[in-house]
């Protein structure tokens, strides 16, 4: 057995015999290990406790040396309690083997005995507990701040034990002994009101009633003159009872213990009347953060619910809470005065911060500073001395700017999710519906209103304040009208209701609180960012600024805006992307002195982005930087359709070349058709490129018939005998588009005609590598349709190799998929299926990275048929079920993939498994992620084809 005593100089005993720890370093190491209470202590913390500022150069080695010496000193019996884990070193002994553990347990027992009116036993328990103290806790570690909190807790518990020992003596009738001890006690700790309470009660019971009243008045004068506060409610009530000669004061029972008093402390915070929705996880994280850190900052944008979180946490605490509201405070002195008023300081002296520290230095509780963003510096300068001088104090701040205090634990508060992790309605929708029902108990939700609710929550970014204010307008406008108005303005929202904890009268006012307090140049920079949808890079932000602002340190401005919570930064992307909340965007639009110029600058940036990207060959790879700019590109094109339709058509047509990764949906088709309709008299090449882009989009979404139609329209637009190099280049691409769609339709004649025209016209012309790769792919597919198997496979292999060299990864992958499909259309053959599986394995990661869901569905479907041919039946069914489920989810027709596989292959797939096994495999597939399916496929292929 190993015992450790730290209430004074460290003493370690093994089986009752004292151990020589080998000097100061060994004693400090044991003391530091004991602070873990049996759990591991991290190496960095151990080194800080043992060596302080004089850290060894090789920390790990130095720790190892000291631990080795300790193990030798502890001997074979004791050394087994000194453990090494991944989290650090631990002195793994139970609490009852330490004097600290024995002391804490004894005090808890004494308090329980006192509450059960067993005063005599309680007095003995407290006296026994206090004999364990031989000096300051962790005496060997000096005054290190790392243990300030733990020390203060032990010291406070000792003070409680001293006081409740005297309370027990009073209850036992040892009034004279208790009064003598308490007279010394109030001199030693004059600000501990419990001692004055017990002393006055003892004097009263001794028949010295006038002296008892004199002591109560003495402590009142002391507290007012020294701290500027009145005595607490217990002392004030005791004085009134003595003046009234209440009979209970002479009763032998003990006064209420301090521990019981602390549980019933009335905080200055009460919960709002409305139900808190969707913040269970955040409250738990806040509890954990404040249990581990003495200062926590709730950081987030206007209206996100920081104050509500702080109030809910504060109202649930059992200890004292002081809630300081700073929304109306403007100066440093006013911050201190607001805190003093909440704490209960009546008169501030010439050193108010020191005065606050004296008031709080022996108290345990939470000090909340709400809405600090406009006085962060003043709040920080107040918080620092309070944390340093009041070890029992913890601080919680709510702000849109960090305070920058050492040790500050920042907890970002995010808007409520509109969708939950399973794809259902999130907490934002739940909050809105709850508030609407609270305004109209007879309201019944319809599907149209549910759709409108989701849109309202999206337009309000999931901000709780905005959602609650929108819900308050439901009876006046109806949900659909609210959503319609919110697209353009925020004043449709209601005003903050009476009794709300929000300091702002409206959501507009809450946003303005942040934006209007920015430095003028920062605010001017922010206002120009409103056209961006879906985020932006720092280069994009710079591009929309007026010329006179373009020499500014843009990264510094963006950092300042992030610090003020008016924009957010996604640092997980490269480059970092910044984003304005939709509500802030609308506010900035209304604040912009020249919104038309700002929107024109944004559209110009989109044109430059596309021009530069296409000039650099973006179509040579699937995916790329434009993936993240889709929303901005659409907005820029929409602007140009109205103001410069030819530019809009040019941009939209250019986007076609990367449509595989950024725009394979009907929205892009509509933009292109609108742009074409807006400029009917532009050059034929421009119109033809737009029609080719439409053909590509139709091809991507699986409409091969429409793809052929638009390609034919492009060919007609240019004419049978194109004039000029540019017209010929456009015609070549149009022919390739038609050939690709014809292959999907299995129209051998049309495919061959297009491929032959291409070959004839391109023979003596310089052709871009990506065009050559596409032509080789079409030629290989056409040869397969013509049943020229060997030639077709050889051409597809050549297309794959050529595309890999020139970087056109889509052709590289698609050549493998076409080859695999062709091999799998035949009668089941294990050798052909193995070849097809390896081709699919090469193509899968390329198409998965490309961002085109249709390509991904196609390769997974081919993988399902490959596994079926290899007799890996359950996994084959799982892959096929996932494709069908995903196709239905996005509005696609699953039959397009079945058609490409062939009717015979589909029929074989349907008969692979008995119904029960088939249903189980389908459930597995639908529940899997694309990554899990890929692992499933590769693992199966590796087993069959080692």
UniProtKB/TrEMBL annotation:
Bacterial transcriptional activator domain mapped to chain residues: 98-243
Any GO MF annotation of the entry: DNA binding
Gene Ontology biological process terms from the UniProt entry: regulation of DNA-templated transcription
Pfam families membership: AAA_16, BTAD, HTH_77
Superkingdom of origin: Bacteria
Signal peptide: none
PANTHER family: HTH-TYPE TRANSCRIPTIONAL REGULATOR RV0890C-RELATED, REGULATOR-RELATED
Listed name of the protein: Putative ATPase
Native species: Nocardia tenerifensis
């Amino acid at each position: 057995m190993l015992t450790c005593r730290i209430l004074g100089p460290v003493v370690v005993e093994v089986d009752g015999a004292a151990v020589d720890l080998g000097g100061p370093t060994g004693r400090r190491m044991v003391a530091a290990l004991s602070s873990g209470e049996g759990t591991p202590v991290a190496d960095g913390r151990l080194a800080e406790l043992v060596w302080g500022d004089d850290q060894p150069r090789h920390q790990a080695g130095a720790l190892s040396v000291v631990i080795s010496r300790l193990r030798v000193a502890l001997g074979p019996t004791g050394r087994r309690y000194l453990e090494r884990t991944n989290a650090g070193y631990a002195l793994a002994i139970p609490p009852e083997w330490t004097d600290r553990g024995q002391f804490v347990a004894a005090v808890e027992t004494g308090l329980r005995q006192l509450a059960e009116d067993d005063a005599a036993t309680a007095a003995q328990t407290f006296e026994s507990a206090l004999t364990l103290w031989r000096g300051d806790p962790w005496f060997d570690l000096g005054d290190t701040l790392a243990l300030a909190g733990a020390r203060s807790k032990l010291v406070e518990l000792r003070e409680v034990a001293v006081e409740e020992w005297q309370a027990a003596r009073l209850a036992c009738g040892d009034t004279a002994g208790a009064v003598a001890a308490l007279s010394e006690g109030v001199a030693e700790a004059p600000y501990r009101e419990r001692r004055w309470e017990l002393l006055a009660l003892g004097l009263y019971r001794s028949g010295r009633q006038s002296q008892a009243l004199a002591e109560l008045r003495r402590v009142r004068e002391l507290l007012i003159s020294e701290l500027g506060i009145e005595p607490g409610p217990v002392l004030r009530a005791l004085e009134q009872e003595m003046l009234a000669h209440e009979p209970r004061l002479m009763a032998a029972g003990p006064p209420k213990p301090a521990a019981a008093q602390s549980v019933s402390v009335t905080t200055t915070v009460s919960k709002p009347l409305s139900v808190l929705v969707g913040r269970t996880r955040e409250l738990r994280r806040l509890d954990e953060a404040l249990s581990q850190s003495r200062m926590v900052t709730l950081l987030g944008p206007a209206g996100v619910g920081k104050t509500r979180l702080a109030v809910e946490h504060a109202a649930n605490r059992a200890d004292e809470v002081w809630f300081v509201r700073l929304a109306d405070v403007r100066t440093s002195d006013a911050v201190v005065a607001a805190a003093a008023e909440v704490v209960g300081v009546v008169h501030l002296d010439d050193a108010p911060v020191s005065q606050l520290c004296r008031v709080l230095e022996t108290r345990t509780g939470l000090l909340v500073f709400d809405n600090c963003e406009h006085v962060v510096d003043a709040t920080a300068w107040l918080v620092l001395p309070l944390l340093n001088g009041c070890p029992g104090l913890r601080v919680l701040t709510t702000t849109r700017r960090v305070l920058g205090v050492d040790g500050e634990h920042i907890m970002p508060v995010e808007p409520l999710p509109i969708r939950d992790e399973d794809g259902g309605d999130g907490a934002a929708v739940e909050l809105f519906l709850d508030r609407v029902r609270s305004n109209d108990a007879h309201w019944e939700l319809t599907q149209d209103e549910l759709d409108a609710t989701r849109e309202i929550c999206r337009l309000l970014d999931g901000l709780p304040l905005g959602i609650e204010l929108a819900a308050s307008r439901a009876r006046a406008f109806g949900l659909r009208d609210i959503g319609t108005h919110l697209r353009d303005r925020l004043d449709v929202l209601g005003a903050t209701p009476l009794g709300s904890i929000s300091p702002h009268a409206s959501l507009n006012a809450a946003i303005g609180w942040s934006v209007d307090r920015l430095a003028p140049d920062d605010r001017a920079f922010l206002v120009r960012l409103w056209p961006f949808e879906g985020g932006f890079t720092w280069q994009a932000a710079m591009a929309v600024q007026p010329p006179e602002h373009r020499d500014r340190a843009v990264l510094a401005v963006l950092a300042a805006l992030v610090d003020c919570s008016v924009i957010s930064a996604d640092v997980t992307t490269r480059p970092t992307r910044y984003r304005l909340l939709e509500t802030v965007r609308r506010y900035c639009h209304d604040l912009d002195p020249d919104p038309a110029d700002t929107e024109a600058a944004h559209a110009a940036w989109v044109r430059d982005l596309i021009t530069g990207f296409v000039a650099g060959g973006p179509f040579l790879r699937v995916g790329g930087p434009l993936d993240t700019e889709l929303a901005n590109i659409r907005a820029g094109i929409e602007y140009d359709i109205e103001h410069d339709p030819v530019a809009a058509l040019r941009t939209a047509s250019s986007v076609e070349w990367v449509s595989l990764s950024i725009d394979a949906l009907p929205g892009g088709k509509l933009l292109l058709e609108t742009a074409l309709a807006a400029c009917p008299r532009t050059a034929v090449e421009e119109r033809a490129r737009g029609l080719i882009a439409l053909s590509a989009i139709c091809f991507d979404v699986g409409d091969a018939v429409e793809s052929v139609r638009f390609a034919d329209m492009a060919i007609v637009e240019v004419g049978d005998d194109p004039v000029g190099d540019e017209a010929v280049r456009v015609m070549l691409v149009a022919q390739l588009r038609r050939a690709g769609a014809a292959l999907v339709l299995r129209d051998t004649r049309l495919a061959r005609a297009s491929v032959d025209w291409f070959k004839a016209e391109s023979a003596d012309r310089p052709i871009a590598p990506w065009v050559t790769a596409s032509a080789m792919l079409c030629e290989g597919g056409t040869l397969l349709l013509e049943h020229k198997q060997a030639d077709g496979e050889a051409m597809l292999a050549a297309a794959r190799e050529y595309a890999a060299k020139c970087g056109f990864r889509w052709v590289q992958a698609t050549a493998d998929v076409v080859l695999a499909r062709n091999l799998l259309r035949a009668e089941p053959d294990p050798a052909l299926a193995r070849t097809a599986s390896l081709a699919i394995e090469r193509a899968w990661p390329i198409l998965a990275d490309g961002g085109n869901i249709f390509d991904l569905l196609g390769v997974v479907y081919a993988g399902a048929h490959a596994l079926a041919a290899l007799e890996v039946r359950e996994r084959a069914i799982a892959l096929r079920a996932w494709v069908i489920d995903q196709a239905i989810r996005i509005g696609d027709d699953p039959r397009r993939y079945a058609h490409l596989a062939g009717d015979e292959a589909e029929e074989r797939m349907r008969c692979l498994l008995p119904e029960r096994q088939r249903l189980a495999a389908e459930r597995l597939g639908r529940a899997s992620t694309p990554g899990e399916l890929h692992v499933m496929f590769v693992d199966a292929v590796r087993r069959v084809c080692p």
